[in-house]
Amino acid sequence: MTSLSDLPIRDDLRGLEPYGAPHLHLPVELNVNENTHPIPEDVARDIIESVARELLTVNRYPDREFTALRESLAGYLVSTEPGLELGPEGIWAANGSNEILQQILMAFGGPGRSVLGFPPTYSMHSIIAHATGTRWIAGERDADYLISPETAVDWVRRSEPDIVFLCSPNNPTGTALGLDTINAVYDAFDGVVVVDEAYAEFTAEGEPTALSLLEGRPRLIVSRTMSKAFAFAGARLGYLAADPAVTDALRLVRLPYHLSALTQAAAVAALAHAPEMLAMVDDIKFQRDRIERGLAELGYYPWPSAANFVLFGGVSDPEGLWQQLLERGIIIRNLSIPGHLRVSAGTAAETTAFLDAMRELTPR
Ligand SMILES: *Cc1c(COP(=O)(O)O)cnc(C)c1O
């Protein structure tokens, strides 16, 4: 049998681990921060009709510039952020925000260049860095997973990266980042600042996002996704907002026709129902708050979360507890943070099942 190490693989990929969230099918799946609420049936019907229409011309290549989709995405973002001026030329999309991040690193990173991130953070950030030959620099956070402007700037000055990845709210900690930190990082160097806002829709109402900083900052990129709030993880649609010059850079590295006609049609149809699609966000936030309260009552230490998941400490045996939940048909996430586990907010019933199991499994 041939093993990976027998192959003439790139030296810089030897010994690396692939993205590895266990993908098991269980009654209660709260492990990868999906939106567990199914999309409303009338929206699903609309999406099916749009995709069906598109299928009739699928012998042709799709719109390489996905113009209708970019208009829909710009319209959606403008509707969420008061005062935001953003047109389709400032939008780019790809098959999930993971592909967005990969394209950014292909255009602005690569061999001889580096990206600074602040673990614990989304594991794909360093994996995509390695895959594109970009050196990953692990910065350090302040206490309570926060990053002050001073700490961030200090890391930028010391490590001289070409790109900085910030994640707000941060996965897996749920921590929201102040706009002052993003601003300070931008001013501290001449490189590209990427703010991964995959969970933006779950932050407190009226809280400005990094979109509000785009004006006059051509090296700032705000990455978003339809995977979480829009319950569209299986459709694969991520996007970014930035100066139009950034999209010109990405055209150099993307594969032509990277977004299928079916993906484009499905996303446009879903965005036409944005308010309905997002109606479940309020319930998810409510369930998240229930988890925070419930875990605290049991003696655990949930970190305040602005996303759709909760990281909690005070777990004496994370792997053991993860296994015991699994035996009860519930999967959450063990990220190997000592004493911690992460759970996604589910439906009311899933959240209740999780909290009930935790009550049973917690020694008094
Ligand atoms: C889930 C997640 C994504 C989403 O990735 P997609 O490829 O859009 O599904 C991006 N960033 C972070 C921080 C995430 O947690």
From TrEMBL:
Please give the pathway this protein is involved in. Answer: Amino-acid biosynthesis; L-histidine biosynthesis; L-histidine from 5-phospho-alpha-D-ribose 1-diphosphate: step 7/9
The UniProt entry, under Pfam families, shows: Aminotran_1_2 (PF00155)
Q: Which Gene3D superfamilies match?
A: Aspartate Aminotransferase, domain 1 (3.90.1150.10), Type I PLP-dependent aspartate aminotransferase-like (Major domain) (3.40.640.10)
GO BP: any one term:
L-histidine biosynthetic process
Instruction: State the EC number(s).
Output: 2.6.1.9
Q: Which UniProt keywords apply?
A: Amino-acid biosynthesis, Aminotransferase, Histidine biosynthesis, Pyridoxal phosphate, Transferase
Catalytic activity annotation: L-histidinol phosphate + 2-oxoglutarate = 3-(imidazol-4-yl)-2-oxopropyl phosphate + L-glutamate
Q: Residues where N6-(pyridoxal phosphate)lysine occurs? A: K228
Regions crossing the membrane: none
Question: What Gene Ontology molecular-function terms does this entry list?
Answer: histidinol-phosphate transaminase activity; pyridoxal phosphate binding
Please report the stretch or stretches of sequence annotated as the Aminotransferase class I/classII large domain. 28-357
- What PANTHER family does the annotation carry? HISTIDINOL-PHOSPHATE AMINOTRANSFERASE, HISTIDINOL-PHOSPHATE AMINOTRANSFERASE-RELATED
Q: How does it assemble?
A: Homodimer.
Family label: Belongs to the class-II pyridoxal-phosphate-dependent aminotransferase family. Histidinol-phosphate aminotransferase subfamily.
Under what name is this protein listed? Histidinol-phosphate aminotransferase
Species per Swiss-Prot/TrEMBL record: Herbiconiux oxytropis
Taxonomic lineage per UniProt? Bacteria, Bacillati, Actinomycetota, Actinomycetes, Micrococcales
